[in-house]
């Protein structure tokens, strides 16, 4: 064996030489030999190169080639499209070379040899080595896997008899080159035929045990044909094999994250998961309403991604408060994931390490960083001073760090393209495989903010603002078509078709919709066929998919999913006292005079909006600042007057008049009535709340001066109070939250927490059920975001109370009474679309800032605004109610539940997963004992030391993965305790956070799925199922695996049966099946195989033709779209580069152009390959007989 493995390693040297000789010149410059080879060798290796005068890669040994490969790894992986695992394979190869160079005569355990050969197999696949070499290593590896004991001596071939000439027409051979054969004496010894030597008894060279060996024909026999009829297996064994197949080959039509996290099952939270896995690129903007659960949705997407590929690196970017309070860290623990937090020092370390090693440090492969870290130095680096080394920035890294997934929370923070936060996020997202943006801040369809986010997320699709507007142009017509379908009127088909034709006649529609096969198919159906009720309902989802942004945006509104709790809004009106009213009016009049003098030619209304809201919020908090606020512009006025005031007597100057008025206002502020009715009203609310079991109160204000005033007054009044705003230090923020969650009986507890909007952004306070708005924003969605801090999933109280403190006679009171209350924002989550909400917010601001309006005129306009928008909201709601009552169209919640039901699989349910684990343990360890103990959701795994050792060997064959789950599993296998608390259900995992949660991403499942993977034969199964719709009797069936390759790859299980009704219902019949003790029906099955095969062929041939035709159309459409968008994208980037006169901006633009080109070439290559390789492959995976009986029999 030593000679065989050493020979393989020698061949690997040739493979590495060939690969590096091809790629190093491509990634390096003309001096690549010095820079990419010599510069990375050790001192001893460099001496060897000089002594032997080596000038090319062919002169280097295996150790040197591995060293060169490893040091160039990041660039090679990026350019040559190698997997993340390649680094681990190279490390193993280096260790392997050292082991086998010094191995003794006693050799190594078979398991270690198998591991080494398996590493070679994986590495050869990565490097596209020759098939002969790959087959040789693979066969040698597989033979070791099958031989548990020491191999028996091979039968020696008998002496070759003296050759006699045989006429060629008589000679024939039983086996051909490439046939898989095994020894007659030992069927476990298998290998391919390498050559045939025809003689009186033919002699064959077979690759066996890592070497060529000769055998006569009588010593060999043909292996069973793949997928031939196998043995009869039990129902549990059959289900275990089906579960293993689904785990090994994830399907686009099946969700793997349904039972894989310590979270409650909520159907709508899987809606973005389905969008993500079915999108042409794994990138999605989740713009769900406040409290819907965007963090959980992101975690579910991560889980789904992990079930489909090896996810090693995840970056989460979020506001600093979410890092400080460890929100993301704690939420990710519900998915058994451990994330680190990066501060400035840790991030600089990561940049330095990436520059040295070409890879992001593995200890921070899953990490969280705040926006606040992103500045000019981090992005561009800093120039070196005297005697100091230049600090590297992110843009200095080549290649850049490439994360498997980037999650950007509160993504509205990056709407401004000029900020370093935006530029840093773009850098990470451009170089990531997948990305998710989260925001509850509504973005209007067609708005600039939406363009910025989508351009950052999908720059290949959303190229510039002009093309973005073109792209959005068809959507109003598509909305019209959807409304026509929902109406169900007699003319719905013709009107919908007309709307679609209008959408197709837009600039975007002519280029893309007109050539979209699905679009053309639906339009043809609307124009030329009569569509029944079911087809009409189905067309709604299809029409929604034509929204130009539907594949990259998920928007789940609160009203789509129902209310979490009842909102109880309470208006508390507090009039100004006489002295307060006088001060309020004086402050506004004086400020208006100052601004009018400063800006005589412009309308100052918008400049007054802040001071008006500040004065309405809290005069007592504003009073100490009034002098500074009014005086800060006086110096500017004095300078502007200059010589213009020369010669005027004292008091004639406008400045003197304003100064006098400021003094009057200051005097009014000093004499302000110490009695504050608004504060007293607040104290009364707080006092009443303290008598309740849940005594917590959250208070919001938009202004720090209000918060500071309230904090001082409440603290002096013995109220246990805390205050959090944008400037609150991290450690105080964490401490306040901890104390606010404490029971009121605790001495450290806080009863009232004061917040600004930014102070609690993204944080959850559903343990509190009372909120006070001391002042109100004019934007209804900002109001909704405030309420959403407590009215969200997880709120235990039946209702949440919302106190709105309003002062009559102020502009805030008019906006509140005439608009905000009337549109219902305080009573329930606003069900309006983003367009309507945007119009409301804009309308309120325009009316509020129009100082030319009288009070009566302003009130009338605000009421008119609310009336118009209320009508729009009511029409939208009425249409949805009508579709349910009259036409049976599904509500969003019902639609989601049905979608989830369609994406569910019985073979991925907790009971099926438990069945696979039980079968795996029994098959691997044996002993006939029960390894999983317990009947409830909480169970115990009991495996003795010897069994755990076997499991540990299997575990080590899996790709290395850093996670809480893997660490827990490895600790158990290496430990001394034979018991491990486990559960197979999310409910059990939620009840006990310490229990091991066995779900589709757990290493135990991965081990089990390998053992129960594809077989050479298709097993037989027989079972009984109860069904009152199918005629009782025995029905033969077969299950085929269909693998769709091409542009849209997928895998499905396709049942066929002697009864079409049984074929349709087979999954449900299996789900509720019981073993059949009478297997006489199996004999009937063997006679029906040909009929089943004919049925299958008819279905398969039609499906294959449709798939290949569809693939051709879609590939052509996507190729044209890709080429068009890439040309436009490059043109825009090159134009931006030409006008950039700053070196740092030039580097950033050059990096973007380089990334765009690499992205285009990679995606085009994928499309061209998919276009050529469209196929529908199949293989039978099981045959069986189902005995159907009646429930009342």
Summary of the model, kept short:
With 1193 residues, the chain is α/β, with parallel strands linked by helices.
Describe the structure.
This protein is α/β, with parallel strands linked by helices. Helices cover 50% and strands 13% of the residues. The strands form five sheets. It has a seven-stranded parallel sheet, with helices on both faces. α6 packs across α7 (110-126), α9 (235-248) packs across α39 (910-925) and α45 (1081-1139) runs antiparallel to α46. The longest helix has 59 residues, at 1081-1139. Residues 147-171, 643-651, 831-836 and 879-891 have low confidence and may be disordered.
Give the overall average pLDDT.
81
- Helix count equals 46
Measure the end-to-end span.
63 Å
Helix content, binned percent: 40-55%
Shape: globular
The major pleated sheet works out as: 7 strands, parallel
Strand fraction equals 5-15%
- Poorly predicted sequence stretches spanning 5 or more consecutive residues: 147-171, 643-651, 831-836, 879-891
Rg calculated over all Cα atoms: 36 Å
How are the strands of the largest sheet arranged? 9-10-8-11-12-7-13
Helix/strand-derived category reads: alpha/beta
Total count of strands: 28
